[in-house]
Design brief:
It is a single chain. The protein is mainly α and about 110 residues long. Helices cover about 80% and strands about 0% of the residues.
Length: about 110
């Protein structure tokens, strides 16, 4: 009786311990796989972050250049517009004294 009951209980306990160990080993393997996946994702995200930081640095440099030379480019653009307007006016027949300084028109009379 008593010995057989103890052996049965002991066998049941070993079976439960064995199942518990198997379950824990399975959980550990699942966690290990999850950890490896997370580490891989972290590496990938780190590479993506590095690319984005390089892109931001390039954009920042370009932006700095645009801000630094804005006035120069604005003045150049205004001068270009002014020159084009004068050229268009000349081609349309406008009479610019500065273009005819020191010359006599060909139809003007000499006295």
């Amino acid at each position: 009786g008593n010995y057989e009951a103890m052996m049965t209980d002991s066998a049941e306990k070993r079976a439960m311990d064995s199942k518990s160990l198997t379950d824990r080993e399975g959980a550990k393997a699942d966690m290990q796989a999850e950890l490896e996946k997370s580490e891989s994702e972290k590496t990938s995200a780190g590479k993506e972050l590095m690319v984005l930081e390089q892109y931001m640095t390039a954009l920042h440099a370009e932006c700095d250049w645009l801000v630094q030379y804005f006035e120069v480019r604005k003045t150049a653009r205004a001068d270009e517009i002014d020159s084009l307007s004068k050229a268009k006016a000349v081609l349309s027949g406008a009479d610019y004294a500065l273009l005819q300084t020191g010359t006599r028109g060909f139809l003007s009379r000499r006295h």
